[in-house]
Amino acid sequence: METLNFEYRGGKPVAGSTPSTLVGVVGSGNLEVLVERQDLAGACKVEVLTAATGFGPIWQAVMDDFFDRHPLADIRISINDVGATPAVVSLRLDQAVESFLGGRS
What we know:
Blueprint: E1 2-8, E2 12-13, E3 20-24, E4 31-37, E5 44-50, H1 56-69, E6 72-73, E7 75-81, H2 86-100
Parallel strand pairs: 2-6, 5-7
Antiparallel strand pairs: 1-5, 3-4, 4-7
Helix pairs in contact: 1-2
């Protein structure tokens, strides 16, 4: 197992009252994503717990792309990964944010 942490700044706070959203399943080739509203001094923090070690640069690229498309602030994202491909990770992240924002993204 490997734990990766990413932090982004310059995002926008999101409106709404949803405290958290969980999407996905922990299973082979899949992952779960938890999105939580937290006071992080304007940061968006991401923690990835993955069974596939040695893919930090790929995770960095996927998370950079995600933050470019969804510049969030004061949001913590926790990911439990069991070998999902980058495409599946991106889809799950989009699904989680859309659910968290109540259909707005």
